[in-house]
């Protein structure tokens, strides 16, 4: 279970969350909210990339930032961009080495996302959709227990969209907790969601009907 | 953890190699002459080192040399900030870390690695001050170490460039010289904290350029380097050197200035290119031309400096080099600069080989 308690976070004078409380069970969770409501920041905090000024986060009893926690989490976000001056293959190898992800898994997703012909290309020359596919490949291949996806469907072509939904459904069946932050309506996608959360200005969370 | 640290080191090495990649495009001849210029640049630095450790000089007399050394090191820091990756890529690198602690540790290690030359050159000064036996030298040494520690551990490289400017050229050689420096560092940090989340809007093209210029660490470093070379020049004038030495330093100054203008112009071009369609969509062709003309600003500054501090012939050559390098988009044209440089040597350099 993902447990967030009394989370407070701000950028300079702008406070995004104040005493945010949230408990999430494994499953597919949709997090919506207006632009700037703090969806992306929340995902980065959950991935230990940003540090909250107050509060605690734990997943399966492991505290955020600990090696046990980090081994369970993967993030795909525009703000977490694969190294632009490396080749696609180079980035895959990098992740395989650091995260212990199997190269076969990475190549499997690469093939499904039609990135295979681009393995020798530099990341910087990929289109927006291709960069999104690469980012999803890196996050999905690790088979994490906590999968954090920031606007995962933006810029994807129809085939990639179907494949992505299938993979998210598979992750749910595997017992993972998938948190999807998106400004789109969840009804547009073939996903069996467990919860739909809405983040409002000031860090207020509410539950929307599915 | 070991794998991750090794990876960070590899990325660091890759970045350092990439920083020098444009040099590979230069011709062999250019490399030869650039090497010559580089040696020219090192000569005064070596002399600077001698003066720093000159036992005949008192501590106070040695301050200008120490200050110059600090500027060089600050420039180095600025150049390292130049190579830093974007925030998004930094997030990606950190997301690969096995734990938040390892990410923090590796960030610190990389910062330390970046600053190795800084420590390498400054620590001997520190040790010398400590063991020189001069009155109050221990106070200077302590202050130096304090500033170094604050710079290296608590502040990012980007804070140092402007500070160095003040610290080295604006502050007098007073006993507690580190106090104003530390105050300035804190002030800049407070200002940055105040400005975070409050983006500055560009109301005019000039303001846009100004924000871009100030926001880019490499620009600050370049500016600082220009000022440093200028200060060195002024110092050599005071020393009443032989004509040959003056010519040599003159050449180095011209070269440095021209290359800095070239580097600044390339950076600005890259900025315009990355936002090409944005500018097409919201600027008239006249305005875009205006943006490109902003390149002339450093050239203008260089020209004023050159006219003020160099003799007429050198000033003219400086301006020609700076203008050519600022307007020409291809690195291959540096060969023209090489020819200008050699012509300068032939015209004025009889003293070197007579």
Write the layout of secondary structure elements.
The complex is a heterodimer of chains A (210) and B (354).
Chain A: E1 2-11, E2 14-24, E3 27-33, H1 39-46, E4 54-59, E5 62-63, H2 67-70, E6 73-76, H3 88-99, H4 103-112, H5 128-141, E7 146-150, H6 158-173, E8 177-181, E9 195-200, E10 204-208
Helix pairs in contact in A: 4-5
Chain B: H1 2-19, H2 28-52, H3 59-82, H4 87-95, H5 100-114, H6 116-131, H7 137-154, H8 160-170, H9 178-195, H10 205-215, H11 217-238, H12 243-274, H13 276-282, H14 285-293, H15 296-309, H16 312-327, H17 334-348, H18 350-353
Helix pairs in contact in B: 2-3, 2-12, 3-6, 3-8, 3-11, 6-7, 8-9, 8-11, 11-12, 12-15, 12-16, 12-17, 15-16, 16-17
Folded structure, characterized:
The complex is a heterodimer of chains A (210) and B (354). Chain A has 210 residues and is an alpha/beta fold. Chain A has helices at residues 39-46, 67-70, 88-99, 103-112, 128-141, 158-173, and strands spanning 2-11, 14-24, 27-33, 54-59, 62-63, 73-76, 146-150, 177-181, 195-200, 204-208. The mean pLDDT of chain A is 89. The longest helix of chain B is centred in the last third of the chain and has 32 residues, at 243-274. Chain B is flat, with a radius of gyration of 22 Å.
Bin the helical content of chain B. Answer: over 70%
Gyration radius of chain B, rounded: 22 Å
Order of helices and strands of chain B: HHHHHHHHHHHHHHHHHH
The greatest interface here is: A-B, 31 and 29 residues
Q: What distance lies between the first and last C-alpha atoms of chain B, to the nearest angstrom? A: 62 Å
Number of strands of chain A: 10
Largest sheet: number of strands, sense, barrel closure of chain A: 6 strands, mixed
Report the count of strand segments of chain B: 0
Q: Helix and strand string of chain A, N-terminal first? A: EEEHEEHEHHHEHEEE
- What kind of assembly state do the chains in view correspond to? heterodimer
How many domains make up the coordinates of chain B?
Answer: 2
Number of domains of chain A: 1
Q: Any idea of the CATH class of chain A?
A: Alpha Beta
Question: What is the molecular shape of chain A?
Answer: globular
CATH topology of chain A: Rossmann fold
């Amino acid at each position: 279970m993902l447990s967030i308690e009394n989370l407070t976070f701000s950028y300079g004078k702008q406070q995004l969350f104040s005493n945010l409380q949230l408990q999430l069970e494994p499953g597919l969770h949709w997090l919506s909210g207006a632009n700037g409501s703090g969806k992306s920041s929340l995902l980065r905090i959950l991935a230990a990339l940003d540090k909250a000024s107050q509060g605690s986060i734990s997943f399966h009893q492991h505290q955020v930032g600990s090696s046990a926690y980090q081994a369970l989490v993967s993030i795909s976000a525009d703000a977490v961009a694969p190294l632009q001056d490396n080749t696609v293959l180079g980035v895959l190898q990098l992740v395989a080495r650091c995260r212990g992800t199997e190269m076969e898994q990475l190549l499997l997703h690469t093939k499904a996302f039609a990135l295979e012909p681009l393995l020798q290309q530099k990341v910087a020359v990929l289109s927006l959709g291709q960069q999104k596919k690469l980012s999803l490949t890196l996050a999905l291949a690790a088979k994490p227990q906590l999968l954090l996806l920031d606007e995962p469907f933006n810029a994807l072509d129809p085939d990639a969209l179907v494949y992505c939904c299938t993979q998210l459904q598979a992750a749910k069946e595997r017992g993972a907790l998938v948190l999807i932050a998106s400004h789109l309506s969840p009804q547009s996608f073939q996903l069996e969601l467990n919860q739909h959360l809405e983040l409002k200005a000031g860090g207020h969370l509410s539950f929307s009907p599915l | 953890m070991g794998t991750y640290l090794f990876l960070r080191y590899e990325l660091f090495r890759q970045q350092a190699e990439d920083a020098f990649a444009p040099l590979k495009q230069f011709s062999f001849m250019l490399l030869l002459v650039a090497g010559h210029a580089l040696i020219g640049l090192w000569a005064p630095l070596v002399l600077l080192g001698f003066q720093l450790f000159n036992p005949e000089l008192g501590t106070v007399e040695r301050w200008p040399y120490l200050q110059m050394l600090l500027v060089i090191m600050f420039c180095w820091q600025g150049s390292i900030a130049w190579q830093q990756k974007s925030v998004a890529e930094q997030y990606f690198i950190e997301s690969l870390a096995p734990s938040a602690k390892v990410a923090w540790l590796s960030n610190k290690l990389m910062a330390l690695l970046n600053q190795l030359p800084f420590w390498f050159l400054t620590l001997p000064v520190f040790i010398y001050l400590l063991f020189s036996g001069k009155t109050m030298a221990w106070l200077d040494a302590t202050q130096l170490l304090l500033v170094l520690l604050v710079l290296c551990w608590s502040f990012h490289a980007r804070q140092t460039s402007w500070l160095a400017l003040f610290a080295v050229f604006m502050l007098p050689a007073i006993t507690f010289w580190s106090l104003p420096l530390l105050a300035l560092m804190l002030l800049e940090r407070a200002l940055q904290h105040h400005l975070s989340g409050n983006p500055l809007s560009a109301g005019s093209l000039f303001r846009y350029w100004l924000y871009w210029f100030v926001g880019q660490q490499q620009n600050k470093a370049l500016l600082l380097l220009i000022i440093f070379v200028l200060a060195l020049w002024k110092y050599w004038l005071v020393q009443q050197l032989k004509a040959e030495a003056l010519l040599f330093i003159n050449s180095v100054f011209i070269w440095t200035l021209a290359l800095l203008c070239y580097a600044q112009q390339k950076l600005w071009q890259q900025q315009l290119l990355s936002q090409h369609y944005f500018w097409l969509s919201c600027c008239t062709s006249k305005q875009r031309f205006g943006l490109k003309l902003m390149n002339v600003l450093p050239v203008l500054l260089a020209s004023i400096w050159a006219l003020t501090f160099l003799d007429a012939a050198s000033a003219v050559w400086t301006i020609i080099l700076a203008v050519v390098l600022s307007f020409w988009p291809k690195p291959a044209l540096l060969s023209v600069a090489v020819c200008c440089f050699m012509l300068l040597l032939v015209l004025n350099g009889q003293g070197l080989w007579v």
